Amino acid sequence: MEKSINAVSRRTMMRGAALGLLATPALVGKGLAQGAVNWRVQSHWPKASSSFTASLGVMAADLERRTEGAFKMTLLGDGEFAKGPDIYNIVRRGVVPMGTISPSYIQDHAQAASFMYGIPGTLRESWEMQHVIKNLGVEALVNEDLMGQGTMILAEKVLPTELALTRDIKSAADFRGLKIRSSGTMLDYLALAGAAPQFVPGGELYQALSSGVVDGAHWGAAVGAKSMSLWEVCKFHVKPPIAQTTDAYVVNLDALNGLADDMRQTFLDTVESRFFRRSVEYVHAEAIALTRGRQEDALQVITLPEDVLELLSAASVKVMETEAAKGERAAKAADIYRGLMADMGYI
After folding, report:
1. CA–CA gap between residue 261 and residue 3 (Å, rounded)
2. What span, in angstroms and rounded, lies between the C-alpha atoms of 190 and 198?
């Protein structure tokens, strides 16, 4: 059985974009004969988040349809069993077979996790991040570490990271000391540029903003901000994105291994094909959300001043260097980024 996991996992990690063109057949044979499966999935998204329904909910419905009802999921909102970084640990221990996370939550578990999360100030377009994650091998590098811990990560979608702020920023002085909810490499990035970032779980974010604990946040970009009602408090939305990033599924390998071969393959194919579809959907959804924000929330879209952008640019270089130094797999991930950035003329 271990052989089947490794073969499926490696094959899945290498297929990349081509898989999105394949139709997954309805589950037949051993999977149905073995009986129904119902996985509990602990999400890092609150149920109010658009991704809880439009990402996780749609994937679960798609999987159930493709397996003719044999594979169901019970979806748990942020904090029902665990929240934030604790989700990885309960999946690793087998408390639940699957969760959704930000790759920023597993930086201590995988050298290249920050590159799957996204290095701020580097890649500019959604397709670039999709290519890096699936086709050029960053996801596979992360799984080289995670599979030894009994887990596997599968990117769920690419999305931009943008700041929503309670006040306008006119200069570096305004930016300095700004309390911003953040996570992962973005914490280091914003701190190096002079802000005062801190981590706040999704379920506590609105209260933290409305009470003044933080002055701004990123929860994805426009879609995330609108779905979490952040624009009720934060009337200034910053463009362009500070990074392209990913959300992800993390799976317990014992649970995955316990599935019949055809059911396991259908699960992997469903997640992989949804990644590309959802990433493209998200680009469209971002434009819609920003338009509605202007119309319904009196939102102002701002660009950071040049002196702040210079601070952020210098911070990006330092973050890349720090992350690349974490080990051989991190260095390979950094080379993947730099190669694409050179091809695009960014460096």
Report:
1. 12
2. 10
Residues 113 and 58 occupy one common structural domain: yes
In the chain, the number of structural domains is 2
Q: Does residue 324 share a domain with residue 209? A: yes
Count of beta carbons in the 10 Å neighbourhood of residue 26: 13
How many angstroms from the chain centroid is the CA of residue 333?
Answer: 17
CA angle centred on 84, ends 80 and 88, rounded to 5°: 90
pLDDT along the chain (347 residues), means of 10: 45 39 42 73 91 96 96 96 94 98 95 96 96 98 98 97 96 96 91 95 92 94 92 95 96 97 97 97 95 95 94 95 98 98 95
What does each C-alpha distance from 252 to 67, 146, 160 come to in angstroms?
20, 10, 27
| Residue 21 counted as domain residue | no
Sign of CA dihedral 198, 202, 204, 206: positive
Cα torsion at 58, 85, 115, 161 (round to 10°)? 60
User: Do 130 and 197 belong to one domain?
Assistant: no
Domain co-membership, 138 together with 252: yes
Kindly report the CATH number assigned to the domain that includes residue 120: 3.40.190.170
